[in-house]
Amino acid sequence: MNEPRRRSNSAERHEAIDISDFVYAATGARVRRLTMPDGAHWFPAVDVCKELGYTTTRKALTDHVPEDHRESLETVTGSHCLSVPAGREWRRDLQLIDLQGLIILVQACTKPACAPFKQWAAEVIETVQRDGSYTLDEAEVQPAEPGAPIAYAMPEQVAEAIVRLEAHNLQLDEELANGQRESITLQREMLATQKSTLAVQQAMVRAMERIADRLDALVLERRTPCSHLTVLPTTESVLADWRQRLSVTEDVWTVAVVIAPVLVEEGELREPLEAIAARTGLSVRRVNECLRLLHKHACIRSRGGAKDGAPVYVLNES
C-alpha cells in the first residue's frame, strides 16, 4: 500500500470505516492504494479486477465503470503536483479507479465471496430509501483524548466478511506449519543416522527434536477445546481458546497477544485504549474494534469502566 502524502485531519475525521478493512471486505485482498492529499483513495484497476475474477481489465472498466470514476496514474498524481511512484509496476498510463469505481466493480462481480459486501450495500440503500439516511453505530468505548473524533463501530456484515476471509489465511498458515513440521521430522531422522560421526551433528539433532516437540505442542494447544482448560488458565491456553472461538485477523491477534497475559496474571484489563494502541502500533479506533470482536465472540466480557474512564475487561469463564 502506497500513500504519496499523509491525509489531512479533516479527511481522517470523515473516514468512519478504516479504508483498508473496507476494501478487504469488498475484494477479499489487500490491494494497493494511493491516497491523495484531499483524502481521495485510488486503486490500480488491474489489482481489483484480478482479485474479483475479471479476465480483462480494459473490458471490465469499459463495461462497468463510468469515465469519471477512472483515470490514469499520471493524471491523478499530476492534479496534486505529485510525482509518479517509483517502481516498474507504477507506470504512467496505469489505470486507477476511485472508491466508487471499486464498489461498482464489486457490485457487478458474480463471485460468491462478494455476496456479503453486496448484501450490506443493498441494506444501506434500503435503509436510506426507508429512513432517509444511513448512520453507523458509535463504538461502545470512545477515545478519551480531548478533541478526538468519534469512533464508529464497523458494520457487522463488513466485520464478519473480514473474519471469514482471514480464515483462509489461517488455513494456509496451518498447512505451512504442517509442511515445516514434516521437513523438520525428515531432517531429524537424517541427522539421527549420522550422529555417531560428529558431535556437531548430534547437537543439531537434539535442537531439531526440541523444535518439532514445541510445534506439536502448539498444534495441540490450538485444537484443545475451551472445556478442557484447567481451572487456572495460562496465556497460551487462553490464546488457543480464542483461536477456537473465532478466525482472528492479524490486527485482532496483535491485540490478543498484548491483553491475554494481563488478563491471566492480573485477572482484569484496565489499560486505556491509547495505551493498548501504543503497544500494538494500531490506531485507537482499530483497537476498539478488535476488543469489540473479542467481546462479541465471548472471549472477554465487560466489567464497566475504571475511574479514569478506561474500559475494564475480564476473561469470559463460560
Descriptive notes:
There is one protein chain. The chain is α+β, with helices and mostly antiparallel strands and 318 residues long. Among the domains are: 19-136, no CATH class; 235-315, Winged helix-like DNA-binding domain superfamily/Winged helix DNA-binding domain (Arc Repressor Mutant, subunit A, Orthogonal Bundle). It contains 13 helices and 6 strands. The strands form 2 sheets. The protein has a 4-stranded antiparallel beta sheet with strand order 1-2-4-3. Strand 1 (34-35) and strand 2 form a beta hairpin. The protein is globular and about 70 Å long.
Key features?
globular; DNA-binding protein; DNA-binding; 4-stranded antiparallel sheet; 318 residues
Report the mean per-residue pLDDT as an integer.
Answer: 80
Biggest sheet details: 4 strands, antiparallel
Structural class: alpha+beta
DSSP strand tally: 6
Count of separate DSSP helical elements:
13
The fraction of residues in strands falls at 5-15%
Which segments are poorly predicted (pLDDT under 50) over 5 or more consecutive residues? Answer: 1-14, 226-230
Can you write the helix and strand succession as a string? HHEEHHEHEHHHHHHHHEE
**What portion of residues is helical?**
55-70%
Domain Bro-N: 16-132
Protein name: DNA-binding protein
Pfam family, one: Bro-N
GO molecular function, one term: DNA binding
